[in-house]
């Protein structure tokens, strides 16, 4: 279904709301479950406060099932209000499908992160042929000394997910803290609501999948501007993102392979896996339908991929396709590759499985981290930010380890 011409509630949510109004709470729950992921999400028993874009349907179902035990008007009204309150925490990471401002979790996505002495978190605006866009730039506290010593620092471009802001993304990923430790600059481009009502990067539009056009052109211009205006080592520029931001990071690596030395993809989608809204919605749910081969013979950009195997917003099939697409390009350009598999386990369970491909020198060129039991959230993130899972592995640390080992 194409909702691109207008902002409205998709039919399945409209149906659910009508059922709620008539007191049919269990039926409303079933409608949402069916249309969100095809089956009810696995229930989470962990007590950590994970902020995910997939609602805990098990709690909603428990609440609605009690309707059968008590059918009084007051009781139905109470359960309906309870269900409505829970719905306020329900939001979809769908591109431009609906205005979800009324369904937000209450997280202040513009709260300023802590900035240590002598560090800066600057506000900037870049005007280009693609329009005017805001961004935030983190400059570590040792930057002045590095300039004085004639050093040039790495730069990481961080692309937020839908409904997020640069500030929220900085808090959730803790990238500013890591920038202090590793002495690098971090730039957070901001997608305005004027470009997408939910602040999603438009990864599914053909005009935003090409070099020299749309959002890729602006992001490339911003990257170039930071390189020219600050003491940046142009050979150590990296790009990473979450969800829609991760999909756009893949697009940037595909179209500007000489600009970026590495790409980090968290809960993202393969290059050109969708070309419009209907195909984007389908791809998010079940992955691309056609074999996804590299679109060109451009230079391979080293890539690290993270995806939760309980992601009911962007199916893990997409993470697999990102990996497979990158592997095809790597295998076409490199010989002597070796594949290694690792597991990160505790006494209770294995949290992640990693598939790694190294070049003939033993340097990791492509990594795929399948995070067991995780939803659509940044692994190892700060719970003060949105879409974060405080449990490991720490995606931010692993990304920087991967980038700086190239």
TrEMBL record:
It comes from the Bacteria. Residues 44-54 have a biased composition (Basic and acidic residues). Keywords: Hydrolase, Signal. Pfam families: Esterase_PHB. The keyword Magnesium does not apply. The keyword Acyltransferase does not apply. InterPro entries: AB_hydrolase_fold, Esterase_phb, Plant_Biomass_Hydrol_Est. Residues 37-77 are annotated as: Disordered. PANTHER family: BLL1128 PROTEIN, UNNAMED PRODUCT-RELATED. This is PHB depolymerase family esterase.
């Amino acid at each position: 279904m194409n909702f691109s011409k207008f902002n409205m509630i998709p039919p399945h949510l409209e149906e659910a709301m009508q059922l709620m109004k008539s007191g049919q709470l269990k039926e409303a729950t079933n409608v949402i479950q069916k249309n969100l992921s095809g089956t009810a999400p696995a229930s989470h028993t962990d007590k950590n406060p994970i902020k995910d874009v997939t609602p805990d349907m098990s709690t909603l179902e428990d609440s609605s099932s009690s309707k059968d035990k008590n059918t009084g008007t007051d009781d139905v009204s109470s359960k309906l209000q309870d269900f409505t309150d829970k719905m306020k925490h329900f939001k979809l990471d769908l591109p431009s499908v609906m205005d979800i401002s009324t369904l937000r979790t209450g997280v202040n996505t513009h709260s300023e992160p802590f900035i240590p002495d002598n560090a800066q978190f600057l506000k900037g605006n870049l005007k280009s042929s693609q329009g005017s866009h805001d961004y935030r730039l983190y400059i570590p506290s040792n930057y002045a000394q590095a300039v004085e010593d004639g050093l040039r620092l790495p730069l990481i471009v961080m692309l937020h997910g839908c409904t997020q802001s640069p500030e929220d993304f900085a808090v959730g990923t803790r990238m500013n803290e890591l920038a202090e430790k590793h002495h690098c600059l971090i730039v957070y481009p901001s997608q305005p609501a004027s470009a997408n009502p939910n602040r999603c990067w438009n990864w599914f539009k053909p005009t935003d999948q090409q070099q020299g056009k749309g959002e890729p052109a602006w992001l490339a211009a911003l990257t170039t501007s930071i390189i020219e205006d600050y003491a940046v080592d142009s050979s150590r520029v990296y790009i990473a993102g979450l969800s829609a931001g991760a999909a756009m990071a893949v697009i940037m690596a595909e179209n500007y392979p000489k600009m970026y030395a590495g790409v980090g993809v968290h809960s993202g989608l393969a290059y050109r896996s969708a070309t419009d809204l209907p195909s984007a919605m389908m791809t998010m749910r079940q992955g691309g339908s056609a074999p996804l081969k590299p679109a060109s013979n451009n230079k391979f950009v080293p890539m690290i991929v993270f995806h939760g195997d309980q992601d009911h917003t962007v199916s893990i099939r997409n993470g697999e396709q990102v990996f497979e697409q990158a592997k095809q390009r790597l295998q076409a350009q490199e010989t002597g590759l070796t594949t290694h598999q690792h597991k990160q386990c505790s006494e209770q369970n294995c949290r992640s499985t990693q598939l790694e491909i190294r070049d003939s020198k033993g340097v990791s060129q492509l990594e795929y981290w399948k995070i067991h039991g995780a939803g659509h959230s940044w692994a190892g993130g700060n719970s003060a930010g949105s879409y974060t899972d405080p449990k490991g592995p720490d995606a931010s640390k692993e990304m920087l380890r991967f980038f700086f080992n190239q």
